[in-house]
Each structure stands twice: as structure tokens, then as C-alpha cells.
User: Fold these one by one.
Assistant:
Number 1:
Amino acid sequence: MIDMSNDYILTIDVDWAPDWMIEYVANLLVRKNVKATWFVTHASPAIEAIKHRRDLFEIGIHPNCLPGSTHGNNEDEVLRHIKEIVPDAISMRTHGLYQSSPFLTKAAIDHGISIDVSLFLPRTSNLTQHCIKWHGAELWRIPYFWEDDSEMFEDDPIWTFSDPRLHVKGLKVFDFHLTYIVLNTDTFSVYEKLKYEKQLSMWDLDFIRPHVSNSHGPKTLFFELVDYLSNSGGRWIRELVSSKKK
Ligand SMILES: [Zn+2]
């Protein structure tokens, strides 16, 4: 039997979640001793705390280049702003999967990004790392395989780790959002409705409690994946590249 235990990779998009959500998920990962790569959107005390757990956490960036971004008015401003928060970040997933060849080249050459994880190929087998060399830039791309909010729109969503569709050959990079883990909802409109009622940064447990699902959802899959990864300890995004380079 092929050992695929190293092919399951945990990534988290912070997406401006309040500190209590960051702490909730970080504490679980610390308790289980599981590595994860976080793509951060802002500075905060909880972000500072995960930056100090480099034994467990890789910190990448989650730049927002979409209109109305609080990160800046153009690509350079956005990348400069987010790199000030995590100066040594080499990995990136863009918010909204924003990308173009000039943008990726710029991120690599001018802003020190050597790995991009903004390519979403849901439930696809045989995924692997690949390297793009544009204008002297060397940018690794790691396609990712599963995302919580994307599952909410599927007719047959995957919410349990034993689902055979999660155990295909190749890299299986998972993308979770803190908000969806905490809500555990399988319905995107629940999140939209709550966000309309109250700004995300103001959410607390009392506000979301009536909407937290007890059924299968992002949280139950997250817990199952973390449990599984606690056997091997998991891997960071950056480790996928260093092991490939040799
Ligand atoms: Zn995002």
C-alpha cells in the first residue's frame, strides 16, 4: 500500500477573522501538535502569537487586490502592506484567487514570494508542485484540492474525512476559513446573513451560537483532518518545495 499520509496539507485563510477565532483554531493545532500554513490578512495580537510558533506554523500572506481593498490601491501597495505584516513570508494565497501573469511575476521578483497557492483544482487527483520561470522569477505553484466554502455550493459536499473522494493520488491541500470552522455551517447564506447583520470583527460566540450547526460541516471535517495529521504531524506549504528541489 502506498503511504499517502504526507500528501494531506492543512492551510488556513484568516480573512480578517477576530482574534478569538484565530486563538480557538491555533490552540487546537498546538494541542494536537499539527503543522499548518496560515495565510494572514491583517496584524493583531493573535496573529503575533501564531507568528511566534514557527515550530508549528508557517505564516504566508493573503493579499487582497480586489476593488475596495484595505490593503492598498494597487498591486504594489497591497503586496508592500501585507509583507510589512509578515516580512519573511514566502508563500501566498490571494484573496478571491486574484491572479495574472504580471501580478505573479511582480510578487516573485519584487516582494520575495516564491510559492503561490492560488490555483484551486477541486477534488482533482494527481496534483503536484510545479515551477514557473517568468522574466527571471522562479515561482512554485501548489494547486489546492479542497475548500470549505466551495463545498457549500456542491450538490454532494464532502464533510467527512473518510469520504473516498478525499483519498485520491497526489497532493491534497485543504483550505479552511476560521469563520466557517467556528460556524460549522454547510450553507453559505448563513454566513452572508450574519455578516449583513454584524461586521465580522464584532462577532462573538453569543452572536453566532444560534447559527452554529451540530451536523457535519467544515468544523467536523477540520477536526477529523487534524486528528489524522496528528499521527505524522503534518507539513507546511514551504516544505513541499524544499523537498522537491533536491
Ligand atoms: Zn480570502
Note: Residues 19 and 45 are 7 Å apart (CA to CA).
Number 2:
Amino acid sequence: MRIIAISNNKGGVGKTTSTVNIAAALQIKGQKVCVIDLDHQAQATYHLGYNPKQIKKSIFHVLKGELPYDEILIDRNDMHLLPASQELKDVEFLPIPAKEFLLRDALEEMNLYDFILIDCPPSLGILTMNAMAYSMEILVPLQVQFLPFHGMYNLFEAVQVVKRRLNKKIDVTGIIGTMYNAKRAINREVIEETENRLPGKLFETMIRENVALQEAPSWGKTIFEYKPGSIGAEDYMKLTEEILERD
Ligand SMILES: Nc1ncnc2c1ncn2[C@@H]1O[C@H](COP(=O)(O)OP(=O)(O)OP(=O)(O)O)[C@@H](O)[C@H]1O
Ligand SMILES: [Mg+2]
């Protein structure tokens, strides 16, 4: 079982899009997948076709210790989802010690999957710490349109601290270049700079800019359900093959 947090403290870089579509590609490749939505914005839940406002039982109640995970589990054509709800933002105020381990402890017996993918919020707060305490791997989506290194180093430093204090097993498996456009010189600069500073981390497959990837969430569909012939589908499938190889 590979447990992977999809994380970047910067917002809007393609974390949710990547989580949902890598999960879908893995499923197409015959892997048994569970997605955990650990963001109070609940966009992965929404992207997979569920209205977060109608979710009464979410991962929040599992973290709080009120429900076992299998009571909130949604079976979506064999892809499983532990959905989020807005209450998740209250986790930091729960009067429970060692809150970093709530997810790990609650999911201790969840072992039926080949892959668990966790969509993290755009911060290094308590929810991301929960994802990192439980995961073995991190995938970092990086929007290649901006020079992003300041933010990226915060994340890589945070991973080192997590490794020392919470979870020795964790490592960054790879960086996913998102919203790529070959026509923009800045895209190539960011890629070059990333390869210089963090050699070997960037996946070869770039996720190109693609309107279909933007449209799919409002239909509650993955890119493979919404437009299987799109370049978004092509890119996420190729990327997923690389992820399978980087075991
Ligand atoms: N390759 C792409 N091409 C075009 N649009 C994209 C692409 N990837 C993501 N987007 C769009 O960019 C926006 C941000 O993407 P997404 O929600 O996946 O980012 P995020 O990192 O999860 O954001 P947040 O930090 O708010 O959780 C969304 O509107 C999404 O549809
Ligand atoms: Mg998101």
C-alpha cells in the first residue's frame, strides 16, 4: 500500500486536480484507490460529484473520534472517497493532545488499498501535518508559471522537520509541473531551475494547460470520464505511469 499526500502550501497549484485525476488513472490501471479529502474547502469531494453541503458525516467526524472511517466511506464506482466538510477547519481547536496523529490513528486498520491519496489544504497547518504523519510519500504540484522557490523551500523544510519529529518514513517522491505552456519562456525557466535545485525530483511529464481539466469538476467527473481524449487525460495518464515506476 502506498500512502501519498498531495501537498503544497501555495494555493491553486493543482493539488486537487492532480489528486482526483491521478486517482482515476490509477483505478483505470487496475489499482484499488481511496481518496481522502483533507481540505475544508472540500473541492476533491465536489470534483468527484458530491455536494459538500449535503455531506453530514465527513473525515472531520473520524478525526474527532466520533465515527469509524467505514461509516463515512463513499463507494464511487469502486473508487473510494473519505469526504470533507467545512467543519474540518475546526480540527485545530479540538481539545485533544497530539493532534498530528488523529488521521494515522483513525485509519490504522484501513489496509484494503493499493493507493491512498490525500488532498491537502494550501497550508502547513494541522491538517497537512496529519497527512504527513500518516503518509509515506509526498507529491508536490508546482505551477510552472511563477518562480515559486521561496514557497517550495518552506515545504521542503517542513518535510525535513516532519521526518525528524513525526514520521521517519516520509519523503518527497516527486514534483509535478502543472499548467504548463510550452510557448511561455517562464515555464521553461522554472523547469530548469527546479531541475538544478532539486535534481531528479521533477517528473518528466508536464501537465499542460487544459480547459477540460478546469471544466470537469463542475460536472462531478474525473478527466477520464469527462473528456477521455483531452490532453489533460493524456498527461495525467502518462504521469501516473511514472508514479507507478517510482515505487
Ligand atoms: N492543467 C491545468 N490547466 C488548466 N487549469 C487547471 C489545470 N490544473 C488545474 N487547473 C485549474 O486551476 C485551479 C486550481 O487548481 P486546483 O483546485 O487543483 O488547485 P489546488 O492547489 O487544489 O488549490 P487550493 O490550494 O485552493 O486547494 C482550478 O480552477 C483548476 O480547475
Ligand atoms: Mg485544492
Note: Residues 100 and 130 are 5 Å apart (CA to CA).
